[in-house]
What does this fold into?
Amino acid sequence: MAIKIAPSILSARFDRLGEQVQEAVGAGADMLHIDIMDGHFVPNLTMGPAIVSAIRPLTKIPFDAHLMVTHPQDFVKPFADAGVDDLTVHVESDHEMKKTLRAIRDAGVRPGVVLNPATPLERAIPYLGEVDLLLVMTVHPGFAGQAFRADVVPKIQAAREHIDRERLSVELQVDGGIKLETAPVVARAGADILVSGSGIFPDHVAANLKKLREVAERAARDRP
Ligand code: DX5
Ligand code: ZN
It folds into this structure.
């Protein structure tokens, strides 16, 4: 199965965000990863629905919004209305996960569940029958450009095995520190979607994306 690449616009140059989105789309990005932070769940503030609406007309590729907020249920409708295709929510946020996932699905958006590096896979298992995505973080969320945490690799492998064993239709996404050196590691561990911010933006977007895809697909062919 082909690996999908999801450039994270958190590392794009915001003074020319539209151009950067178009560069990523022109380079064959499979989806655009949009990091939403509320300054509370994580110590950083990023983008709201207005930014998503502004870039929505530029492309038809899926918008994959990663909600790093304390109260994700409050933001389902605003981001659905802004035109996102996926909404992934953390098990560590303060909400009733099943209710939030149902609200996302009812809004016509693909729901996903996210795990911080320190959170065990078991915390996601009860929801995997109801989601389209499982996002495993390989950095502590909050900022782009952090170092990949290799200690999370066994969790990625365990998630892959669980999804296959239970025949779940869940895409396994990995986010944080994905670059040329680490993409093969997560591809071999079983990731379907690689999120990359500083590995793709802001310069040489097309070349970075192409190289990342090449090394990931080569490694995926060696999967056990
Ligand atoms: C981190 C975000 C990531 C981040 C990835 O909190 O969820 O999506 O933008 O950036 P890199 O690839 O630079 O780690
Ligand atoms: Zn993210």
